[in-house]
Amino acid sequence: MTDLRFDDVSITYRSSSATRGDVIAVSGVSLDLPSGATLGIAGESGSGKSTLIMSALRLLPKSARLDGQVLLGGKDLKELSFGQIRAVRWAQASIVFQGALHSLNPVREVGGQIIEALEHHAKDTWTSPEKRKARMLELLTEVDLDRSKAAAYPHELSGGQKQRIMIAMALACEPDIIIADEPTTALDVIVQKQILSGLASLVAERGISLLMISHDLAVLSSVCENLAIMRHGRLVEYGPSDRVCLEPAEEYTKQLAGAFPQIGDPESRMNPRTLKPAEVTRAQPLTMSDEVVLEAKNLNVSFDTRQGRERAVRGVDLALRRAEILAVVGQSGSGKTTLARSLLGLQEVDPGSQLSFQGQALPRKAKALRTFRRQVQMILQDPSGSLNPKRSVYEAVVEGLRVQKIKDREYERVIGALEAAELTPAADYLESIPQELSGGQRQRVVIAGALALDPQVLIADEPVASLDASVRGEILSLFLALKKNLGMSALIITHDLGLAWNIADTVAVMRKGEIVEYGEVDSVLADPQHEYTKELLAAVPRLGSQSLVRNE
Amino acid sequence: MSTPTHDHPQPTDPENPETASAPESGGPSSGGSAAGGPSSGASGGPASIGPADMDEPPKGGSFLGYLLRKLGGAAVSMILVVVLGFFAFRMLPGDPVLKIAKERPMSPAQIAELRSQYGLDKPVIVQFWDYLVGILTGDLGESYVYRKSVAALIGEYIGPTLLLTATAAVIAIALGLWLGQLSAWRRNSLFDKLASSTSLVFWSVPTFWLGLILLMIFGGTLQWLPTGGMVTPGLEPWSFAAVIDVIRHLILPVVSLVAVVYAQFLMVMRASLLEEMNEDYLTTARAKGLTEDEVRRRHAVPNALLPTVTVVFLHIGGLIAGAVTVEAVFSWPGLGKLTFEAIRGPDLPLLQGTFVVFSAIIIVMNLAADLVYRWLDPRIRRA
Asked: Are A11 and A232 in contact (CB under 8 A)?
């Protein structure tokens, strides 16, 4: 068995431009992963956690310089030749990348990609192509995939299935160490639970050591014995997972732990934890009223697929009141995005569906729809993708105004919208382009673009899913403040039940196109009636106590 | 003209199956799920199948449906070409009959007779009908200048053109793609800089100019290679000496064609490989212990080929256009030279004929690109 040790590791990226100088990604980190142990590293983007684990297989780019020692099985990786390091890769330590995204080659069958690892490292054990194929099929079975999936291409699989393929690939050559890099980010809670418990039990059965990194402390704590918290390249806190999560010594750890609320904890209800809460300016904050703004009755949406007509949304009744935040939660594929698109008039609905805005049926003509869309604005998940990289903040925010032909007080409106989105002082940001802004700032620009039109309703599709833990709290508190200050109604699509607990008044749980439970957050999440809601709630990882490992 | 469709499925949003239900399903989609794939595998597999995944994207369509759709598109383009071929050349300045009349003295009656013999006295709509019927029956009319059937003329001249352009295309594509991927992989190295800048210099040179310079140096001053034509008269066809002779004649025209076009292939390949180079699946491959060469050959290049294929097939059309000038410079007895002479006429039937044939070649190339693309990129199989 092999152990992995980081001994006073510092990693510096040499920058080619003289102005920026060298960037220190990791400084002075020492960590120990004895064989058979499980260790989690938590941190936000830029904390150096990915850089650190890449050094474990010497996968860093040429511009990176490593000081200190990375010892794998007692051998210093720096001393190994390229041929030796290639032999170490995958055979001794393999990596589970974030398979839901782009870690699989899109034009090759996934089975072949698993076999490739066997061909390189385990020719002695699985000597013939037939034996390797059999091994590959056996691996698929181990990660609970149908054997026919071996011939599938990555785009034919769901996010969870791709992640299972990544895990099968990592297990292929019977490594001693598995490094998991955000293995469940972008997956919904149910699939996340399946993947995590699958990974944890496979690792435990074989005595493989597991090094896992994530931005979500609860995910790590549900699987790992020990936790390390990293920030700005340094180790902030290190210790047994229960102690780090439940009795954190450092302020930063507390902040990370609090970012994802414990559902049922009254302290985080209507109170997303953040160091920079958005300001509530009204003396008497607005609260949910009885006036219905946007309503759907018997909403059905069907698509023509090769298999015939498929109903993505089935008989949904939904009402959004003034100053209400409604969270629609469900797994990917449950039809919640289609629901949002229908409410915006972006999606053809089936006959018989009734959509109304302020008591009037949703218009169908292009011109009337444009007026309607001034009132109802959409915010998308990935702020980096929804902003044009070549346009300044001013241009991004003003575009809606120009489309709607609102000419008067253009500058004031833009400034006002940016300030409402808490991007202050607004004038400083006008000329910035997206790449100069942080993720949170970008999302604020997107929100400002929606606010510039003085909409009645915001429809947001996973508005914080791609943001860091600390930024998440800021943006959520902004939504809450918009509701309290301006009486804004918001419909938020999410797979994150904690988000609903943090800010929503009401919650609708969607499954296979149907709403299975709908009501006040306090009653639905505290006392779920439907089996599926219970299942969703049970799948949310809890802080501490390695819940997934011990229960199963 | 149909270019290969890049309707990549959006990876983030499997909830919107409209990417899968292509709106332009012109052909009958009767193929349905018959060839859809291993949907029947469920019965044979072991019992330990994971939970049915509602997030799993829908299966792709059949190859037959795709083929029919693309064939339909190609047919529409072809019809447009045929219509355009007729009307466009009617707008050329110069009256072919008067031109013939200028060369030898003719009485007005003889001119009128010539007109009716060519059918030029009939109303345009009737001429168009005759032309359509002619095309369907394979009769492209008779050349005014050569006094031979256009179909026979084209049949006679197409062989040399195909020989020339196919040779040039194969060499240019192979050279361009190979240099392109090496340049990208060794970005900013001396090799990259040399390869890219040389190719750009050649690209900016006009084909005819390069042809003339090559002709002067290798055909004139050095006298290493023949200056024109395709075979030296008097050689036994298909004998060893004749084949060598044809190859010797081929070298200069092929070199001038290749030099001018290979840069485009190099640049496209370089750019698309550069885009792939930061992709996560390459890190996966490296972590699996592949050598850099294997990472490039087995993972990066197959992906980088996808955008390249589109450009390559589109530019084969440009290659054929380039052949017109090269054939004129090297008096290569091909379609380009024939077109060149037909324009001077204007020899309307011959022009129409060559135009239709050139366009057909390009349309076939586009169709081929679509099919190759589907074969290379499994994601297209969903559309």
From this structure: no
Contact B281 A103 (CB under 8 A): yes
Among chain B residues, CA nearest to A108: B378
Query: CA of A277 to nearest chain B CA: how many angstroms apart?
Result: 30
Domain residue ranges in chain A = 107-174, 292-541
Answer yes or no: do A332 and B29 touch at CB < 8 A: no
Residue contact B376–A107, C-beta within 8 A: yes
Q: What is the pLDDT of residues A500-532, one digit of tens each?
A: 998 999 999 999 889 999 999 989 988 899 999
**CA-based torsion, A537, A540, A545, A549: positive or negative:** positive
Neighbours of A25 (CB within 10 A): 22
Indicate the pLDDT class of residue A471, thresholds 50, 70 and 90.
Answer: confident
Q: Inspect the interface and report whether the beta carbons of B45 and A161 lie closer than 8 Å.
A: no
- Report ipTM (2 d.p.): 0.77
User: In this predicted model, what pLDDT tens digit does every residue of B206-233 receive, in sequence order?
Assistant: 888 888 888 888 877 877 877 777 777 7
Identify the closest residue of chain B to A59 by CA–CA distance.
B287
**Inter-chain residue contact A87 with B289, CB threshold 8 Å:** yes
A·B CB contacts under 8 A? 168
CATH number of A292-541: 3.40.50.300
CA B217 vs CA A538, B212, B327, B330: distances in Å: 82, 9, 18, 14
Q: Is-contact A218 A542, C-beta < 8 A?
A: yes
**CATH architecture observed for domain B153-382:** Orthogonal Bundle (1.10)
Per-residue pLDDT tens digits for B286-327 = 888 888 888 888 899 988 888 888 888 877 777 776 777 888
From CA A192, how far away is CA A415, in angstroms rounded?
Answer: 41
Most confident of A9-23, A421-435, B68-82: B68-82
Chain-chain contact of A144 with B50 (C-beta, under 8 angstroms):
yes
Rounded CA separation B215/B222 (Å): 10
What are the residue boundaries of the structural domains of chain B, listed by start?
Answer: 153-382
Residue type (1 letter), B35: A
- Chain A contact set for B16 (CB, 8 A): 337-338, 341
Contact A273, A501 (CB under 8 A): no
Q: What is the pLDDT of residue A101?
A: 67
Question: How would you class B103 by CB atoms within 10 Å of its CB: exposed for 0-12, middle for 13-18, buried for 19 or more?
Answer: exposed
Of residues A89, A157, A333, nearest to B289 (C-beta): A89
Inter-residue contact B211 to B330 (CB < 8 Å) = yes
